[in-house]
Write a structure and sequence with these properties.
By secondary structure, this protein is of the alpha/beta class. It is 49% helix and 8% strand.
């Protein structure tokens, strides 16, 4: 005989089920089995079956059921019953222990525990599989809802939960982490407030190479425990949480065969593609790594990454994201939009939206302290705090100064209230002086914030980058590339995409992406500024104020206004003289110069070369090589320049500012129209006298200094600020280069 109550009641004889009759008779047999051979009085049996609403024939009905059960259990009986017996104390069922599945289950469970303690994983697995294989459903089946069965059903359910937990532990020790995860997930559903089950799920997820998910499940249980019971996790579970943060596999009790301890066990299809090495940012990366380690202890940290467009702010954020992922941090991209940081990245839109429907769960800890809930209220800031404090989190905000104005304002509020949480905020800004981010940066500055100012690459950085590309014999190339790119990582990266002979030298080309960015910057400045830059490009990239003012027939003060705007737009750079303090010259970046020259036709360049040669020929102390270069480039116009050198009065009459003031109204009108011409049109209109700039822009003149600084956008090809403008003049909106 075999009595099974780990599911619907079933009695087997020689492997075949016995027909036990109607439901009430089966419940009666279960009642006797629960007592484990102890007698149950007739009165108690009636009460167990009908509670307080016993029918008049209850006793007769019980006796009839007993008789039918005896016949079913002992069909060949000739004398007294030996299985379902009666005595002065009532009725009892005599079933040997080895014939009852509940006893066999508990004995196998005990043997599995003992084998696991002895590190005999094979035997432990065999015994636990045997024990769990006895279960066919809910314990005691249809009798489980009766009052007499409640205690036994609860005991058996708890034993089953313990058995599944032991099975999970054995699976983890055997390295079957995916199977362990599935079992543990089921355990947390069947017993949502049982801490042991959640601890196993955290361990299994970590062992499966999913530390971020492990931390999220811990936070889920913590919030559930606080909401339902008003309690915190036990010290044991908190230590487990810390072990996940520190990647302490020994404290987690995981074997080295687990996927996280052995990354090579992970499927190669899920491995991210190798990332190019990050050159020239070792100190910044080390600082971010230290912040992540410190934040794991429960303290908020802030970092502000500053730099011109193209200096690699976004690339540094990607590196921080990779570090955070390896450290078990979740990654949140604040400000909205999809993030480029992989599958585990959460796109968080709450900062740039006007409202949030998420309400704070009662009793949930959102990481704030000292009544900060009253400050936050039920708004997007609350949603952000709730999101980033669920688990150790890295929150990255790229291009903060170009984001919606609500974003820095709400981050400022977060900084004011969020102190004690394992969170790191990293914000990238192009211009820290931008008015939209001033208040927010002032708020975080009081929090011992790390300021990471990204500088252009040095020649050594370029050499390292070339070496990583396998170009180790290119020290001279490194210097050429550094000069041409001005150390800007974006421009350098685009140059390296070109064939080696086209990066610098006589066959040098401007990468298409860089050219598009420069042209967009040129379209944002006034026509007189573009004219000035075109003249300087033809003159070798050096701004000679006196010469350019003369050939452009404009006053020095007005020309300096154009110089000021070009410097602000980072289309001109100031190069200090190392020998003379506070002295130097303005230069065009090499790539900007090449773009300007490429935008001009050959006749236009020849006209300007001729005008420059004519001006230089009449000046004392002119560099002969400079003059000869312009004469050669003037082509067929060089003869007219030579002829003009013998009649200096022509040049004087045509280039003198007083003569310009005596021009007729028609000429002045023509000059006003000329302001909207391209460099080619301007040069063609001025003939051999070169292009002219007539009148300043409608703005207040500003003094020019080598340290001129203005808030706004920056050029991707040099250092310094540029005006903030969203569209090219007379064209479509332009995009800034990637960082």
């Amino acid at each position: 005989m075999w009595y099974s109550t780990l599911g619907p009641l079933e009695v087997l004889r020689d492997g075949h089920a016995i027909d036990l009759g109607p439901r009430q008779r089966r419940v009666l047999l279960t009642r006797l089995l629960v007592e484990d051979g102890r007698p149950v009085s007739l009165t108690e049996l009636c009460r167990s079956l009908w509670h307080e609403e016993q029918p008049a024939a209850a006793v007769a009905s019980v006796r009839a059921h007993i008789s039918r059960l005896r016949a079913a259990l002992e069909p060949d009986r000739r004398g007294s019953a030996s299985v379902l017996i009666s005595s002065a104390f009532g009725y009892s069922l005599k079933a040997p222990c080895q014939t009852r599945d509940t006893v066999v289950f508990e004995r196998s469970l005990d043997r599995a525990r003992e084998a696991l303690g002895l590190r005999d994983l094979a035997l432990a697995r065999q015994e636990i599989d045997t024990a769990l294989g006895l279960w066919r459903g809910d314990a005691l089946g249809e009798a489980a809802e009766y009052s007499f069965a409640l205690r036994e059903a609860s005991r058996l359910k708890a034993a089953h939960q313990e058995a599944r937990e032991l099975q999970t532990t054995i699976l983890l020790q055997q390295g079957e982490v995916e199977h362990a995860v599935r079992v543990a997930e089921h355990l947390t559903v069947t017993a949502p407030l049982r801490e042991v089950s959640w601890a196993l799920l955290v361990r299994a997820l970590y062992g499966a190479g999913r530390p971020v998910e492990a931390l999220r499940q811990y936070e889920r249980f913590r919030g559930m425990l606080a909401q339902e019971l008003g309690l915190d996790p036990s010290p044991v579970l908190r230590k487990l949480h810390t072990a996940v943060l520190r990647h302490d596999t020994a404290a987690l009790g995981l074997p080295r065969s687990s996927r996280y301890a052995n990354p090579s066990a992970a499927p190669s299809a899920t491995a991210p593609p190798p990332r190019a090495p990050l050159v020239g940012r070792k100190e910044e990366v080390a600082g971010l790594l230290d912040m992540l380690k410190a934040a794991a202890g429960g303290r908020v940290h802030w970092a502000v990454v500053c730099g011109d467009p193209g200096t690699g702010k976004t690339r540094l954020l990607e590196e921080a994201t990779a570090l955070a992922d390896r450290a078990g941090f979740a990654v949140v991209r604040a400000g909205g939009g999809p993030g480029p940081y992989g599958d585990r990245t959460t796109a968080l839109h709450c900062l740039s939206t006007s409202a949030s429907g998420a309400a704070r769960a009662p009793g949930a800890d959102d990481g704030t302290r000292d009544g900060s809930e009253k400050v936050l209220g039920d708004d997007p800031v609350t949603a952000l705090v709730r999101e980033v404090t669920r688990t150790p989190t890295l929150c990255v905000v790229d291009d903060l100064d170009r984001a919606d104005p609500h974003v820095p304002e709400r981050l400022s509020r977060v900084a004011a209230v969020l102190r004690n949480a394992p969170v790191v905020f990293v914000c990238a800004v192009r211009d820290p002086a931008a008015p939209t981010v001033g208040a927010m940066l002032a708020e975080v500055a009081r929090l011992n914030t790390a300021w990471l100012q990204l500088k252009p690459f040095t020649v050594a950085d370029v050499e390292e980058l070339l070496a990583d590309r396998g170009e180790r014999d290119s020290a001279a190339d490194a210097e050429d590339l550094h000069r041409r790119s001005r150390g800007n990582p974006f421009a350098l990266g685009e140059l390296l995409k070109l064939p080696r002979e086209q990066r610098s030298g006589p066959k040098a080309r401007v990468p298409a992406t860089v050219g598009a960015v420069v042209r967009a910057q040129l379209n944002e400045v006034a026509p007189p500024v573009r004219t000035l830059l075109s003249h300087a490009a033809v003159d070798g990239g050096v701004v000679d104020i006196a010469v350019l003012a003369s050939i452009g027939q404009t006053e020095h003060a007005r020309l300096l206004e154009s110089v000021d705007e070009a410097v602000t737009a980072q289309l001109l750079l100031w190069q200090e003289d190392p020998d003379i303090p506070a002295s130097g010259r303005y230069l065009l970046p090499e790539l900007v110069r090449d773009v300007l020259l490429d935008s001009m036709s050959v006749p236009s360049r020849q006209l300007l070369h001729a005008a420059l040669a004519r001006e230089l020929a009449g000046r004392e102390g002119t560099d002969p090589e400079r003059l000869a270069g312009h004469l050669r480039a003037a082509g067929p116009l060089a003869r007219s320049v030579e002829a003009g050198r013998s009649h200096p009065s022509r040049r004087t009459a045509s280039s003198s500012p007083p003569a310009r003031r005596q021009e007729q109204p028609a000429a002045t009108a023509a000059n006003r129209e000329q302001r909207h011409h391209t460099p080619d049109e301007t040069a063609a209109a001025c003939g051999t006298s070169a292009a002219r700039v007539d009148g300043p822009r409608a703005r207040t003149p500003a003094p020019v200094s080598p340290s001129a600084q203005t808030s706004g956008r920056r050029s991707p090809l040099g250092r310094g600020p540029t005006p903030a403008c969203g569209c090219a003049r007379g064209g479509r909106p332009v995009e800034d280069p990637p960082d």
